[in-house]
Design a protein that fits this description.
This protein has 140 residues and is an all-beta fold. The protein has no helices and 10 strands. It is globular, with a radius of gyration of 15 Å.
Amino acid sequence: MDPFRLVGTWDFRREIEHADGAAYTADGEARFSPEDDGRVRWAEHGTLRWAGGSTPVARTLFLVRDEPAAGPGTGWRVTFEDGRDFHPWTPGAVEHLCGRDLYAGGLSVAAVPTPEWELTWHVTGPLKDYVLHTRYTQRP
């Protein structure tokens, strides 16, 4: 999916289920905006909730053209705010090794513009064991 299709404001709902039974949810806003250098800024803020309380959360990622000559909608990657690589921006299965923990996930988005899309991560390793599912819904 061409990241420029995402430009605008989206609501997100995130569900996190740990192997030990702990469950969390996060609701908030994701804003996608074009940068002057050709990247797309992906900024999220919201509230993380669990049985014992809540806390504000925020993160910024960037969608960066991996191969500028490849043309629109091809050759994109997701990077962290500090420029470190995260994963390819492509439908289907993607992986990211974070230390010894593996993020195995998938981006589910229609080939044509749609007001919803999803991202799922199954995170396993010595420090982490959970499934994270996020649904994004475009604001009118």
